[in-house]
Design a protein that fits this description.
By secondary structure, this protein is of the alpha+beta class. It is 30% helix and 27% strand.
Length: 380
C-alpha cells in the first residue's frame, strides 16, 4: 500500500520564487481532517513548495501536493514474475481500490483549487493547473546538460507574455485537460484523479502467514518463507532457500574471518567440508587436518602478540541448488607491538556446498592478492 496523492501547480511570480536567503523550498506541511464519514481525524495531509524540480522551470512552478494519509485502500499486490530472484516483481498498488480514498482526494482537490482564487495566492501565482508525474515530467527531470539547456530556454519564455507561458504549460508540462475541465463535474474530476493519482514513495506491505494447505500463505506459522513453487494459478512465492541461504553464506564469511583472527581453531575447521581445498600465495592445503594445522598457526601468532584482522566486503553470491559460488574483496590488517601494516588488497573466490544438515560450508577457497607475499609463521 501507499498514500494516494495528487497535486495542483501554478506559475510563480518573480518575488515569490526561491532565493539565496530562503534556501528551503518546502514551506508548509499540514495535516487536516477530510470530514468524510468513517475517516479518522487527521486523515489527510498536504505540502506547499515554491520549487517543483531541480531545473529552471522547476524554479518557476509552485506545487501543492495533497494525499490521503490514512488510507482505506489496502488491496495492492506484489507478485513474483519469475522464480529467478533477479527478475523484477510485478507491483500493483491499486491506490484507489476503496472509493472513500477517491472521494477524499476529490474533496481536497476542489478545496486546493479554490485557494488559488483567493487574493493572497493570486498575488504570487497565476495559471494554476492539475499536475501529475507524467512521462514528460520524468524525461525532463533527468539531471543532464541537455535538460538544463532546454529548461533554461523554456523558463525564459515562461517569464514572457502570458499566452506563451500557457502554451508551454499545456504543451510541455500537462498531459491532461486543464483545471477548469477537471472541475467541470464530479465525473470529470474522478476520471482525472483515477488517471493522475500516484504514490508518495512511502510504500509498505505485509504477507500472509498461514498453514501448509493455505495457497495464499507466503510464510508458515513460524514466519519462515516458503519454497518457490508455481501452482495451477501461476502464483509464485519467494524462496526461503534464496533469502535465507544468502544470509547464511554472508554469515559464513564473517564467522570464518573472525574465528581465524580470534584463534578459534575448531570454528575455522567447521567452516569447511571434510575434503575442502584452500589455496593462497602462502598455502596450498586440503582436508580437515591440514586446515586445523593452518588455523593453529594463526592462533599461535595471536598468542605471540600478532593480531590479524581479515575484513571482507562486496560479497557476491550465485546459488544453484545446494551449491554456490561466492566472491568477496579482502583486506588483511596486521598489528604487533604498536605497529600496523596491511597485506596487499585481494579477493576470495569460493565454492560452497549446502550439506544435508542444512549448513553451508566452503568446499574450495582461493585467495588472490595483487602481488605475491610471504607471512612468517603462516607459510607452509
Amino acid at each position: 500500500m501507499d498514500h494516494p496523492s495528487i497535486s495542483i501547480s501554478s506559475y510563480l511570480k518573480l518575488d515569490a520564487r526561491k532565493n539565496p536567503y530562503s534556501k528551503r523550498s518546502l514551506h508548509l506541511g499540514m495535516r487536516f481532517s477530510s470530514g468524510v464519514d468513517g475517516a479518522p481525524p487527521g486523515d489527510m495531509a498536504l505540502t506547499v513548495s515554491n520549487k517543483s524540480a531541480w531545473h529552471a522551470i522547476g524554479d518557476r512552478i509552485a506545487v501543492i501536493t495533497l494525499w490521503v494519509n490514512k488510507t482505506f485502500s489496502e488491496t495492492g499486490q506484489v507478485r513474483l514474475s519469475s522464480a529467478d530472484w533477479r527478475q523484477e516483481p510485478d507491483v500493483d498498488f491499486n491506490l484507489l481500490s476503496d472509493h472513500r480514498d477517491l472521494v477524499r482526494l476529490a474533496k481536497g482537490f476542489r478545496e486546493i483549487a479554490a485557494l488559488h482564487e483567493l487574493p493572497p495566492l493570486k498575488a504570487v501565482t497565476s495559471d494554476a493547473f492539475p499536475a501529475s508525474f507524467t512521462d514528460k515530467i520524468r524525461q525532463v527531470g533527468t539531471y543532464n546538460t541537455k535538460n538544463r539547456i532546454l529548461t533554461s530556454i523554456g523558463a525564459t519564455l515562461m517569464d514572457g507574455p502570458s499566452f506563451l507561458r500557457r502554451a508551454i504549460i499545456r504543451g510541455f508540462i500537462m498531459e491532461s485537460a486543464g483545471l477548469v475541465h477537471a472541475l467541470k463535474d464530479d465525473e470529470a474530476l474522478e476520471t482525472y484523479i483515477k488517471r493522475a493519482t500516484v504514490g508518495v514513495w512511502h510504500c509498505s506491505c505485509s504477507c500472509r502467514m498461514g498453514a501448509d494447505d493455505d495457497p495464499m500463505a507466503v510464510t508458515d506459522p513460524q514466519g519462515r518463507v516458503r519454497d518457490v513453487h508455481a501452482g495451477a494459478s501461476g502464483r509464485s512465492r519467494v524462496s526461503a532457500s534464496n533469502l535465507e541461504d544468502r544470509a547464511a553464506i554472508h554469515d559464513l564469511f564473517t564467522r570464518y574471518c573472525c574465528a581465524l583472527d580470534n584463534g578459534e581453531i575448531e570454528v575455522v575447521v567447521d567452516c569447511f567440508t571434510v575434503d575442502a581445498i584452500l589455496k593462497s600465495p602462502v598455502i596450498d592445503i586440503s582436508g580437515c587436518d591440514e586446515i586445523r594445522a593452518f588455523a593453529a598457526r594463526f592462533a599461535a601468532q595471536r598468542t605471540a602478540g600478532t593480531q590479524f584482522r581479515h575484513m571482507v566486503s562486496n560479497i557476491a553470491v550465485t546459488i544453484t541448488g545446494n551449491r554456490a559460488a561466492a566472491s568477496a574483496y579482502l583486506l588483511v590488517l596486521i598489528s604487533k607491538d604498536g605497529n600496523h601494516r596491511s597485506l596487499l588488497p585481494g579477493r576470495y573466490a569460493c565454492e560452497l556446498i549446502k550439506e544435508d544438515s542444512g549448513q553451508w560450508r566452503f568446499s574450495r577457497r582461493t585467495v588472490f592478492h595483487d602481488h605475491d607475499y610471504t607471512l612468517d609463521g603462516i607459510d607452509r
